[in-house]
Amino acid sequence: KVPHRKYSQYYNDSLIKEYYMYAKEMTKQELDERTTGKKGLATLNVVIMVICCIIILENLLVLVAVCRNKKFHSAMFFFIGNLAFSDLLAGSAYIANIFLSGPRTFELVPVQWFIREGTAFIALAASVFSLLAIAIERYIAITKVKVYGSNKTCRMFLLIGACWVTSILLGGLPIIGWNCINNLSECSAVLPLYSKKYILFVVSIFSLILLSIVILYVRIYLIVRSSHQEATNSPAYALLKTVTIVLGVFIMCWLPAFTILLLDSSCRMKACPILSKADIFFGIATLNSALNPVIYTLRSKDMRKEFLRVLCCWGLLQSGRPADRCLVPLKSSSSLEHCTNKHEQQTTPIMQDCTTCV
What we know:
- One of its GO terms (cellular component) is plasma membrane.
- It is a multi-pass membrane protein.
- Helix 6 packs parallel to helix 8.
- The protein has 358 residues and is mainly α.
- The protein contains twelve helices and no strands.
- It has a single domain (7-356), classed as Rhopdopsin 7-helix transmembrane proteins (Up-down Bundle).
């Protein structure tokens, strides 16, 4: 009966006002001001929307580049395409979130609110899990024999499938029932219909992912250093540079959001007024989706060439050559493709040449 009473509240059009007023510790007058406020976009939201548009365009460019060129139809580039797709969805979800925020929030019923927040959580979680999937693939690629053998497609789809199933499950838990409806004392100050325990659970999961990525890349670098290569060789240093960029950007973008969510699980709004600035921290986290294509694709010279070719085809780049030249395939395969072909029949672990492919 209790779950039934909770689900019956999902269409209560006055519940959001009640929970926002309690969780954010607002007076009736403050709530009325927020409810009747201007429905235009704040300056911060305009900036975030511009960033989201950039996220959508650059990740769309990655997807088009991977799809249209058969030389990029390899396992590693499919992982990059999956990351680009999740980042594209993250940008789209955040734009939708902005348009349904502010005074419009109080026009929603709880089920619509859960869909609004859950979609953003699913997209952002998929982006993070994609980073982990890439790290796992790279680790397997340098420790397993015949990495690019007949089992590569199966492993690729298993990792991509697990990424999305886990993300949907993680983002869908609140609408399934893990929320604070009928339990006001458990409500989050940042996301008033979410349970503090759920927020703590999400922070713990993302922290474990971060730790896992760190461990995997440290292991990769140690294996590279202990291989037949000299420690001062360029592949080892190139790998270290890539790992440093990936981890540095990941930590810089997500640590503020993790911190604000962790604080939210143990602090009330008036005791921790910084919680009212949570939108800024989530905006910083969204930046990770804009930077991922730069990190994972622009380090490939052939991918850069393909980007220019796609932009030429779209008419966004004046290259000074006929339009039909835009469709000319790459003369040489990318570095990742080269690694794949070169070691397809190899019977020893891949330590060399592919170590700079992240």
